[in-house]
Amino acid sequence: MNPWVLPLDVWKSMFLIKGFIHFHGYPSRVLVCPKTNRKSPIEYAPRKKKKGRSYLAKKKEKYKKPQCCITHACILLRPYPYREYTMKYILVTGGVISGIGKGIIASSIGTILKSSSLHVTSIKIDPYINIDAGTFSPYEHGEVFVLDDGGEVDLDLGNYERFLDIRLTKDNNLTTGKIYQSVINKERKGDYLGKTVQVVPHITDAIQEWVMRQALIPVDEDGIEPEVCVIELGGTVGDIESMPFIEAFRQFQFKVRKENFCNIHVSLVPQPSATGEQKTKPTQNSVRELRGLGLSPDLVVCRCTTPLDTSVKEKISMFCHVEPQQVICVHDVSSIYRVPILLEEQGVVEYFRNRLDLPIGRQPRRLLMKWKEMADRYDRLLETCSIALVGKYTKFSDSYASVIKSLEHSALAISHRLEIKYIDSADLEPASMLEEPVRYHEAWQKLCSSAGVLVPGGFGVRGTEGKIQAISWARKQKKPFLGVCLGMQLAVIEFSRNVLGWTDANSTEFSPQTNHPVVIDMPEHNPGQMGGTMRLGKRRTIFRSPNSVMQKLYNGNEYVEERHRHRYEVNPELRNEMEAKGLQFVGHDTEGERMEIVELADHPYFVGVQYHPEFTSRPIKPSPPYFGLLLASAGKLTQYLERGCRLSPRDTYSDRSESSSPDTEIAEIKFSMMNHN
């Protein structure tokens, strides 16, 4: 094909520069036509051709790296050498009951697609009218997950980030409240030109536009646009709240064409203990209702206790209008790391390749091999490390979902099985000994039998004295301790009371009139508004002491960037008095006013962090503060630091028998887990 040379002014009027690709071994800019959405890489033509050599011959001899296009008079546009770019959408819906595991399945689908060298993004749709999840009670929806941009979102976005190792934004969490707010704002501006604003078409159109716009936002570090967007629709089919979204996607499948849209329906196949028979009727009814609303599932994912019988698969296939190979079984497994492997073994990747025309090769997928090795190692772990999680919402484990995952990542990295002992902080308080003596003694027995103590974040005064009791015990008994957010603040309060002698030391959140306000409100919010008013999102923390344990765990970096969600801070005016007694503030913000990291001298591991490191922990890159807690609890922290922050092969493979030979490739993978940037 002959080169097509365009003058610079014509190019600027017709095309947009967007993203990067690799062309002839060099990163090249990409042209995107605003009408056809066609991508093409850019090369730069020489200003003058030398006699005796053609341009193509010269390029074959030596290809020069492209320079800034502004300095050239023209550019050479060549067709994209691979397939034409088209966004693919995968919608995950649920039936029968909520909390069936759609988030894990959606994350696992993204994982197997990413392991096939595709760029994947995710969108979570929540039908509630709240603008975001910032004001939710932990008992209502579990933890509030915080993103880099400060978005307070559903905890499922945490699963997406952990599984896919991506960075999402607050617009990746779409709620009914956001859609209605957007449409109402447009109506107030007159954008609808006096038309009657209705659910159809205005709300449904807004949903489709939001999804198509957000699907193009890069979420990987390389800045390349995603090729596949996995969309999870919260709730269950038939909920009145989700009807506008179902209708929007009914229209959406025709807008983007069938070859670019796929629907996966997750349903429950119960197995009553009385008969032991797997029942398909709930799945049949759920699929029938979904099809009645205009969406036909391409894959039916069945959640069940045990693997589906062949006869059950055939029955679901017959009544749900799908082939037997389109009925996918996701039964209970030992670890969520096995879910992507389970899907891959049942031919989900091959189905997507044919159904969506995805450029997926048949070669082994290296990323999925890492997940399989990780799942196998998890099942072989023999040694156990117990951590006492002292909190306020311990009756509902989803309230600390990211904290639990961070502990699991760290335990797996040191080849230990994790045992979490959940302790309601109120049961540790002296008042509980009189009112509930059994619960009081059980709580203290759990605490004393644990190898380490973790006090996570929280709000409100209830249970804070019990947390302070646990912190005091960990400090005096030299037990490894990690305090996160409120946990760090309470560690400072405990130290002030019992070491500095300020018996009334407290936070102004709990006692506004205290004479020793060691934790104060440092405004970065509007007191008149509750939602989205805290110090939120990614902030930079600078290390003050080069010899601190935390800086070593962060690979000696001069600063780290972690996510925050809090209103109160340690009082900087009292810092010198605390440091004189051994409580060292080794990290602060860029202004030097907000205390971010605290360490106690002469203690195996007594650390507090004001930020939430659990939000950036990954299965192959555990969070350094949590990793340090597990190392100290297992008695390996000192050895780890002496080895230059590396685990010994013996520690890494403590789950293997003596006769088994370690795999060199997997050893390199496990060592790389420690490199947390």
Automatic annotation (TrEMBL):
Enzyme Commission number(s) from the entry? 6.3.4.2
Pfam families membership: CTP_synth_N, GATase
Q: If you read the UniProt record, what top EC class would you report for this enzyme, in one word?
A: ligase
**Is RNA-binding one of the keywords?**
no
Which reaction is the catalytic activity of this chain?
Answer: UTP + L-glutamine + ATP + H2O = CTP + L-glutamate + ADP + phosphate + 2 H(+)
Q: What InterPro entries is this protein classified in?
A: Class_I_gatase-like, CTP_synthase, CTP_synthase_N, GATASE, GATase1_CTP_Synthase, P-loop_NTPase
Q: Which UniProt keywords apply?
A: ATP-binding, Glutamine amidotransferase, Ligase, Nucleotide-binding, Pyrimidine biosynthesis
Domain Glutamine amidotransferase intervals: 397-624
| Every CTP synthase N-terminal domain range | 88-358
Looking up Gene3D superfamilies in the UniProt record yields:
3.40.50.880, P-loop containing nucleotide triphosphate hydrolases (3.40.50.300)
Any one GO biological process: 'de novo' CTP biosynthetic process
Q: Which GO terms describe its cellular component?
A: cytoophidium; cytoplasm
Biological pathway: Pyrimidine metabolism; CTP biosynthesis via de novo pathway; CTP from UDP: step 2/2
| Keyword ATP-binding in annotation | yes
- GO terms of molecular function: ATP binding; CTP synthase activity; identical protein binding
Member of which family? Belongs to the CTP synthase family.
Q: Which PANTHER family match?
A: CTP SYNTHASE, CTP SYNTHASE 1
Task: Provide the function of this protein.
Answer: Catalyzes the ATP-dependent amination of UTP to CTP with either L-glutamine or ammonia as the source of nitrogen.
Q: Which NCBIfam families match?
A: PRK05380.1, PyrG
Specify the protein name.
CTP synthase
